[in-house]
Amino acid sequence: MTIPLIGAVELGGTKINVAVGTGFGGIGPGALHATARIPTTSPDQTLHAIIDFFRGQPAISAIGIGSFGPVCLNRADPAWGSVTDTPKAGWANIPVATPIGSALNVPVAFDTDVNAAALAEHKWGALAGCQTGLYITVGTGIGGGIVIDGRPHHGFAHTELGHIRVKRSTGDEFAGVCSFHGDCVEGLASGPAIEARLGATLSDIDPDDPRRLFVFDALGQALANYLLTLSPHRIVVGGGVSKAPGFHKELQRSLKRWIAGYVAVPVFDGSDYVVAPALGDQAGVLGAIALALGLPAVASA
To answer: Residue 79 burial (CB < 10 Å; 0-12/13-18/19+)?
Structure first.
């Protein structure tokens, strides 16, 4: 049997990861036969660079795209597959999936970057076996993907978990950096928010600096809200901020404080409820392959 090759695009606000892989017979870094990183510049330049990459590879049977957002996920909408009202300059209302699929003459699966990463972690990583799994990224922004019964969750649109409002810690007077909401959790605890409030990254400040508590208090409160709403079996937290030493343990402690004993979650007694991505930095691009595996043309191959 010939195993079809699948294209993968992780479209980020500053860079794009592209790859060709299979997704069959197990997966991991070795299953990606070709990879590249492309800077996110103007839409025309960026989309042409993505298409040129795949034209230089063996023929693919389908492509999966996980994109920064907001995006349109409703296939009945003419804007399906587009980045919509993003604050990223030049990218508002830009079609992504249709021009790439048309240029390469392949079917396209399209979702948010965080839903893609959540799906990959569910299929091959830290969310495996979880009926309800949550993937959160804490980096340039804060976003989240939800997988329920093996499928990414959609509503009338997609979730925007970074923009929930949280109570301020006593003594926290930081205004927040979100251009829409100021002090939502993204405004208080994303990478840019941390650097604005601390003058350094979370990895670079003293572990005993009391201002760290403001960051973990906001993040722990957000995770408590997600837990109380979704009851996920596990929470995976990735992104650049999450690479700070001791991040996941400190975040789980903050989450436990905010739950305050109300929900009995036995795994709080261990260290396997709030965890790092098992797939590391490849969760997004492997997630794009996971999205494409759900296309009828691939699933029946």
So the answer is: middle
The two tokens of residue 160 are 């925007």
Q: With 0-12 CB in 10 A as exposed, 13-18 as middle and 19+ as buried, what is 50? A: buried
Which backbone phi and psi does 132 adopt, to 5 degrees?
-125, 120
pTM higher than 0.85: yes
Q: Are strands 108-112 and 151-152 parallel, antiparallel or unpaired?
A: unpaired
C-alpha torsion angle, residues 58, 282, 14, 67 (rounded to 10): 70
Buried b (16+ CB within 10 A) or exposed e, 188-213: bbbbebbeebbeeebeebeeeeebbe
The answer to whether the CB of 166 falls within 8 A of the CB of 185 is yes
CB-neighbour burial class of residue 263 (10 A; exposed 0-12, middle 13-18, buried 19+): exposed
- DSSP conformation class of 281: G
Q: How far apart are CA 294 and CA 94, in angstroms?
A: 24
| pLDDT tens series, the chain, 301 aa | 456 789 999 998 889 999 999 865 454 444 788 899 999 999 999 999 999 999 999 999 999 999 998 999 999 999 999 999 887 889 999 999 999 999 999 999 999 999 999 999 999 999 999 999 999 999 989 999 999 999 999 877 788 899 999 998 888 989 999 988 889 999 999 999 999 999 999 999 888 888 899 999 999 999 999 999 999 999 999 999 999 999 999 999 999 999 988 887 666 666 689 999 999 989 999 999 999 998 876 766 5
User: Strand locations in 103-213, DSSP E?
Assistant: 108-112, 132-138, 142-148, 151-152
